[in-house]
Amino acid sequence: MAKRTFESSLSKLEKITEELESGELSLEGSLKKFDEGIQLAQFCNEQLEGARAKVEILMKKDGKVQAVPFEEE
User: Does the reported pTM lie above 0.90?
Assistant: First the structure.
């Protein structure tokens, strides 16, 4: 089984969204796709939060470049 990545999960989530928006799925099929989509969205969100925690901004202070944590405004 292939390792789940952010990119593959996002692509699958986009496909599920298209399938749900098409209106061609049964109620049961729609619920299954919705559940799968929720799981994929949670995975993507976790990946984004992890990436955000790793982002650092390089600041020049006293002639030296220093890494500081990223803070949202």
Answer: no
Q: For the chain, what is the domain count?
A: 1
Please give the structure tokens belonging to residue 27.
Answer: 């109620």
Could you tell me the residue range of the domain that residue 15 belongs to? 6-69
Cα separation, 46 vs 30, whole angstroms: 24
Q: How far apart are CA 44 and CA 16, in angstroms?
A: 14
Task: Return the structure tokens found at 53.
Answer: 């925690």
Report d(CA 45, CA 66) in Å as an integer.
28
pLDDT in tens, 27-39: 999 999 999 999 9
What is the DSSP pairing of strand 64-69 with strand 56-61?
A: antiparallel
